[in-house]
């Protein structure tokens, strides 16, 4: 399965694209980030990309996130569910998904319970972050079948 335009719209809205590397908002340092939320050893203070570099890296980064979701989910997913989980992994990492109650409920086919789990992933450095509250609300909306635009609106309204 591949991320749909709805999933990419949500991801791009919440990541936004910055062509100059910036520090993690929670730590004020590592990991440094550039483009559409890309992190890695090559991302350091002062790094600058073109829009084409940022867009190409997003395409590359999505592949590993899609593979992580496909591997972790043992039940068939609807497109919106897949998109929401790819965004979750893009933001929080595959390890967090793999050990989460969210995934356990999904794999138990308890989608109603699973959707409620998104809201609990709104902290960074132990602090509730408004941006994460909004993003998790958008993911929950995607998960339940909303369009990208409606999911973004649900996220914006959440905090």
UniProtKB/TrEMBL annotation:
One Gene Ontology BP term is: cell wall macromolecule catabolic process
Q: Which reaction does it catalyse?
A: Hydrolysis of (1->4)-beta-linkages between N-acetylmuramic acid and N-acetyl-D-glucosamine residues in a peptidoglycan and between N-acetyl-D-glucosamine residues in chitodextrins
Among Pfam families, the record links this protein to: Phage_lysozyme
- Provide the E.C. number(s) assigned to this enzyme: 3.2.1.17
Concerning InterPro entries, the annotation shows:
Bacteriophage_GH24, Endolysin_autolysin, Endolysin_T4_type, Glyco_hydro_24, Lysozyme-like_dom_sf, Lysozyme_dom_sf
Keywords, A to Z?
Antimicrobial, Bacteriolytic enzyme, Glycosidase, Host cytoplasm, Hydrolase
The answer on whether this UniProt entry bears the keyword Hydrolase reads yes
Q: Which GO terms describe its molecular function?
A: lysozyme activity
Q: What class of enzyme is it?
A: hydrolase
Its domain of life reads: Bacteria
Q: Tell me the protein family, please.
A: Belongs to the glycosyl hydrolase 24 family.
Q: Which PANTHER family match?
A: LYSOZYME RRRD-RELATED, PTHR38107
* Name of the protein described by the UniProt record: Lysozyme
According to the entry, what is the taxonomic lineage of the organism? Bacteria, Pseudomonadati, Pseudomonadota, Gammaproteobacteria, Pseudomonadales
């Amino acid at each position: 399965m591949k991320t749909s335009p709805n999933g990419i719209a949500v991801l791009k809205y919440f990541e936004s694209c910055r062509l100059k590397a910036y520090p993690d908002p929670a730590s004020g340092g590592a990991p440094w980030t550039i483009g559409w939320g890309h992190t890695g050893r090559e991302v350091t203070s002062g790094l600058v990309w073109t829009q084409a570099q940022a867009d190409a890296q997003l395409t590359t980064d999505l592949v590993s996130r899609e593979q992580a979701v496909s591997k972790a989910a043992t039940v068939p997913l609807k497109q919106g569910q897949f998109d929401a989980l790819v965004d979750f992994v893009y933001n929080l990492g595959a390890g967090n998904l793999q050990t989460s109650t969210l995934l356990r409920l999904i794999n138990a086919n308890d989608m109603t319970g699973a959707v409620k789990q998104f809201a609990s992933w709104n902290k960074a450095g132990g602090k509730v972050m408004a941006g994460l509250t909004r993003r998790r609300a958008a993911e929950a909306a995607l998960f339940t079948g909303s369009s990208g635009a409606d999911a973004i609106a649900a996220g914006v309204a959440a905090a």
